[in-house]
Specification:
The structure holds three protein chains of three kinds.
Chain A: H1 12-21, H2 31-69, H3 72-75, E1 79-80, E2 85-86, H4 89-120, H5 123-138, H6 141-168, H7 183-208, H8 211-219, H9 224-253, H10 256-261, H11 279-286, H12 293-331
Antiparallel strand pairs in A: 1-2
Helix pairs in contact in A: 2-12, 4-7, 4-9, 4-11, 5-7, 7-9, 8-9, 9-12, 11-12
Chain B: H1 2-42, H2 48-52, H3 66-97, H4 101-115, H5 118-133, H6 138-163, H7 166-174, H8 179-207, H9 234-243, H10 247-281
Helix pairs in contact in B: 1-10, 3-6, 3-8, 3-9, 4-6, 5-6, 6-8, 7-8, 8-10, 9-10
Chain C: H1 4-7, E1 10-21, E2 24-35, E3 39-43, H2 50-57, E4 67-75, E5 78-79, H3 87-93, E6 94-97, H4 109-119, H5 127-137, H6 141-144, H7 157-169, E7 175-179, H8 187-200, E8 205-209, H9 213-219, E9 222-227, E10 230-236, H10 237-242, H11 247-253
Parallel strand pairs in C: 3-8, 3-9, 6-7, 7-8
Antiparallel strand pairs in C: 1-2, 1-4, 4-5, 9-10
Helix pairs in contact in C: 4-7, 7-8
The chains are: A mainly alpha, B mainly alpha, C alpha/beta.
Amino acid sequence: MASSGRTVGGAASLLRARSKLLARLGSERNWADFLFRRVTWLCALLVVTTLGSIALTMAIASLPAFRELGAGFVFGTVWDPARRIFGALPFVYGTVVSSLLALLLSVPVSLGIAIYLSELAPDWLRNVLGFLVELLAAVPSVVYGLWGIFVLSPWLRDSIQPLLSDWFGFLPAFSGPAHGFGMLAGGVVLAIMITPTIASVGREVLRAVPLSLREAALALGATRWESVRIAVLPLARSGLIGATLLGLGRALGETMAITLVIGNRAEISASLFAPGYTMASVLANEFSEATGELHLAALAEIGLLLFVVTVLLNLLARVLVFRVAAGSARGRP
Amino acid sequence: MRLERYAWRRLVDRAVRAGCVLSMGLALLPLCSVLYYVFSRGVGGLDLAFFSELPKPVGEPGGGMAPAITGTLKLVGLSCLFAIPPGVLAGVYLSERGETRFGRVARFAADVLSGVPSITVGLFVYAVVVTTMKHFSAFAGGIALAVLMLPTIARSTEELLKLVPEALREAALGLGVPHWRATIRVVLRTAAPGIAVGVMLAVARAAGETAPLLFTAFNNRFAAESLFEPTASLPVSIYTYALSPYEDWHRQAWSAALVLLLVVLLLNVSARLLVRHRVGGR
Amino acid sequence: MNAEDARALPKLQTLGLCAFFGESQVLGGIDLEIAEHRVTAVIGPSGCGKSTFVRCLNRMHEVVPHARVSGQVLLESQDIYARDVDPVRVRRRVGMVFQKANPFPTLSIRDNVFAGLRLNGIQIDDPDTLLEQSLRRVALWDEVKDHLGRAGTSLSGGQQQRLCIARSLALEPEVLLMDEPCSALDPIATARVEELIHELRQSYTIVIVTHNMQQAARVADFTAFFYLGKLVEYGRTDVIFTRPKERRTEDYITGRFG
């Protein structure tokens, strides 16, 4: 080692440090780095295997139900574990109807919020309101459920449902006795819970549209709304659909709040006032006290169905949202 | 004519603006209502007994939620233990090797995993952990919550690490610092406040989860002595108390909801402040 | 230059060094000897591969995704690209100063100086002496001694760059690679850094990349001219700047370049 020719020497500590450092270039590989890379790789693998195990576990657990019940499972309208009759249609129906009702109520409001937050609100208000929308998403599901039982349902029963049946009572959807609990309450609670999801993803999508396009429209004499309608919405459309699908995914899988307010009766009824049941709710209610292997397997198959549907929805949503974000990145100066 | 048309256009503009403001109000209405009811109905029940006593047997008034509070702490602690280290390291992998084929697969898996319904995660952990260990436990509940936190932490860590300037990493490597040390002590440390925010939000979400605990941690009227016994938690207690026919339990459910909500709000607000502090400091 | 130059041992030597980014080759077959305790300048138009070249000398090139190297780089006749060599150890012996000053933003001035030692897990016996010495060596001591606790990023650009040099020197490397260290600095700060290079020359082997030919003429003993990823001409600085052998070198240094 040619270090003798040094004129600017160091303190003793320096020299010692040097001798430790410069012993040689190292004849061994850097095992610590190798190990570190391996560990981070394993952690990434953990994410992949977790997802894979969920799919696999659910599939294996529901095998007996596949074998014994076949495709009729999804179309059977009677669910009676005591008589070993397992038809999942009431749950599928309840999940689909409550989620669609939630979308119907939530989408216009969420889009309004997204447009307001990204286009119209003054800067100082934007942050505060954005935070409040985040808080709406942060409230735990079971707290919404509690509120749904004791505040929302009575209010629906006493104020909203009588109005609806007075005006629209001729429609089967708004007929029948008003309990408060039921499909309508479930849909409303879900709508509240998915609004922050749709609104905040929608806001991101709108913000991804380049500012120059809005300015171009405004410079042509468009009003604020026209600039949004002409320049922003067409580009953001698929992303907004993606945001809606993310909201739908959340609605389908939502469990606690809706279990507390939907009434939990495995029946298919045309009336939104009647109680219903969802896939997630039946899992929450029956899984830990399920009797018999077939009952467990049938529940697992419902879980598998829920898993597959939400995963597909999420994938589609992410593709749509990503397309807008990526497209705007290209268009940016 | 032209002016009239302009007046019409302005009217439409105003109407849309009003509609947007109205939407904002419509969304804040339930938030305010939830906050109002949870505070007004919950605050009365927050006495010493609530925090220190065991629940009374079914139907008897009085008692508290001590096991649920400690149980939630245990569950959240365990889930942090299980989720934060692998989540952050997976984020490191995604930020460094995210463009390899496996990196893409892993990122994709994280995105999909974060969309899996929490009840499904509960079923999964039941099938894998509870059936092998033969009983419900805080351990199983912690794993279930960790599965929910893992993808969120990994993705937020990845995004934050990507914001760390390459120059800093090179500075450390140029000093002859091994890759792993440069990553941990320079890159992760620089991104630490942001990662903390991501973790806090993930914890806030996990703390309020109920569905995955129903068949993993289950419930317990008494204080669980070890991590391998059924364990009560605030969210599950709120659920069971809300469904009970007793006035007094409803009152306690509101109080528990208030405690839970305060914790979640505290985490969210401090995460928010941390972000602002960091942005303002730069 | 005197006769001593001829006796100086090559500290670093490259043999057929090629560098790639993915499929595209940015350096082709560079053979170069770098003399110990001398300043060697690497000049050439932008995109000629001069930065890549110095980054190959301490294996920083491979830090970039898809980047790879072929050929040999000998550090005192030991190939740093040999299979059993740990790049981390190479970088401890061959330090680097980057184009843009990059002090660690979360660390104070003091801790930035110690960063290399601390990150390498080396005990510092006498931190105060080491700190003063390191900062004096880069002529920064008098400017910062009263606020050593301030963030490294609070300094001016030139001070930050000297802090980064001090940070590298605290590890006592044998070779110091400087990748356009003055490109972001004003003339006064540049002069300080050049003075510093002149002093450091006594104890370190320095390779400096610069797009500024006057700077090369001022600080370097030897100069290498790179063009389109090839080494065009290499020799004593006074020779390169007064009697270049190659036409392209002459065109470049006289500013007749297209």
